Amino acid sequence: MTFHLASIVSAFFLALTSYQPALASANTFTAKPVRLGDNLLSILRQHGFSEKEREQVLAADKGLRTLFLTLDTRYLVRRASGEIELRMFDSQTSDAFRILKKGPSVQAQAYKPNYKISLTRVEGRVYGSLLGSVLAKINSNWVATRFMDAYVFDMASSRDVARGARFWFTVEKKYEAGQFVKYGEVLQTSLEVDGTPVQKRFVRYKDGGVFFSAQDLSDEKPFYAPVEYIKVASRFKPNRLHPITKRLQPHLGIDFELPVGDPVFAPRKGIVVRYGNNRAAGNYIVLLHSNGMETSYNHLHRIDKRIRQGLRVSAGEKIGEVGCTGYCTRAHLHFAVKKKGRMVDPVKYIKAYPHQMQAFLEERVASN
């Protein structure tokens, strides 16, 4: 018995000492905040990369040229004898990159982080704007706007939320090499709208997902969502300062912010009445539907090769891909709805999910 106990103790200490180097290696990374005005080039310069080395990094992977950094994301730095490693994380996508400088050699490539994920719950009350009230509880534009996305189809505006209305949500916190680097998806939400708590759950679907409650299935709006991931960059605004022209110019649609190449779907059975390219809209498509309404899709990266004037398409059929053509600052789909010759607010006419998710959501509701 004594022999076995000694063996167990010896094995325990052997395992403990063998684990320490890995733990020490993970702790050699330091998390650094992205500061106001930072971009990839300025961060590389701060960490001793010469102009030539910065150019080598950008040339190594085209994804680094579109790396999007915000103040609520951190990056990792590891310094060892004669080398420095940076790990960069895109604030709004799953993209991540490892950059290594070792002597005169510079390498950069995309990689898949081994995130450890924890959940945190945030709760509060609305005083002032809804967005500002959420930001007062968690200093992250990403998280606050994701919370707003959950209710974009439930409110004509945030003014529908009364002063003192309660809200709460749970959100993922992502850790790499033992360091917090970014927030992930908002998974559950609750918000008092007209005095009644409206709860939403994020339902993942393929590479996307939507905020959903069982009541959404009874929504009788005529159109399905044209995308599989609801991330709203800009809503219908009759009076808006255009980000490029800097002129007061109405924004007569809704912008879904998505990566280049994400699919765009017909929201209802319809006929292609126009398609092509122009200076402002870039690559575009216009569909006429059986209810007499038109829907349009601007800034497409690619129009499906089958599209032609007079083509009949079905609800949920892919018609193009998200892009950034025409007047555009970041990849998105500008989706607009015309009724009786007038542009109308799309959120009043589209469901919270695409056509291809309906059966999937019905099964989830039935199983619960």
From the structure above, extract its key features.
368 residues, 8-stranded antiparallel sheet, 5-stranded antiparallel sheet
Structure description:
The chain has 368 residues and is an alpha+beta fold. Strands 11, 12, 14, 15, 16, 18, 20 and 21 form an eight-stranded antiparallel beta sheet that branches. The protein is globular, with a radius of gyration of 24 Å. It has six helices and 21 strands.
In N-to-C order, the SSE pattern is HEHHEEEEEHHEEEEEEEEEEEEEEEH
Q: What's the gyration radius in Å? A: 24 Å
Assign the structural class, choosing from mainly alpha, mainly beta, alpha/beta, alpha+beta, or little secondary structure: alpha+beta
H/I helix tally? 6
Helix content: 10-25%
- State the separation between the terminal residues, measured CA to CA: 53 Å
What profile does the largest beta sheet have?
A: 8 strands, antiparallel
Would you summarize the structure shown here?
The chain has 368 residues and is an alpha+beta fold. It has helices at 2-26, 40-46, 51-60, 130-135, 141-150, 358-367, and strands at residues 29-33, 74-80, 83-89, 96-102, 105-110, 116-125, 166-176, 179-193, 196-205, 208-212, 232-234, 254-257, 263-265, 270-278, 282-289, 294-300, 302-303, 312-313, 318-321, 332-339, 342-344.
